[in-house]
Specification:
globular, mainly alpha, 72 residues, single chain, Non-ribosomal Peptide Synthetase Peptidyl Carrier Protein, Chain A, 4 helices
Length: 72
């Protein structure tokens, strides 16, 4: 997940991210960067992320819970 994030925002230090804070705010991603990040997660993990679920994915914790519940 961090590798995908770094492909969008190379300056991100995964060690400094706070799991329960909004990720977009922490790494200053605009809406297009966020969409590219979610598409990157879909491509790298082969997990469908319907557009209706985008609003649920705010923090690293949200993303980890969401992805782990959908991985085979």
């Amino acid at each position: 997940m961090i590798a995908t994030l770094r492909s969008i925002a190379p300056e991100v230090d995964g060690e400094l991210l706070v799991a329960d804070m909004p990720l977009r705010d922490q790494v200053d991603l605009d809406s297009m960067d966020w969409l590219n990040f979610l598409i990157g997660l879909h491509n790298s993990l082969a997990v469908e992320i319907p557009e209706a679920d985008y609003a649920k994915l705010r923090t690293l914790d949200d993303l980890l819970d969401y992805m782990s519940s959908r991985l085979p």
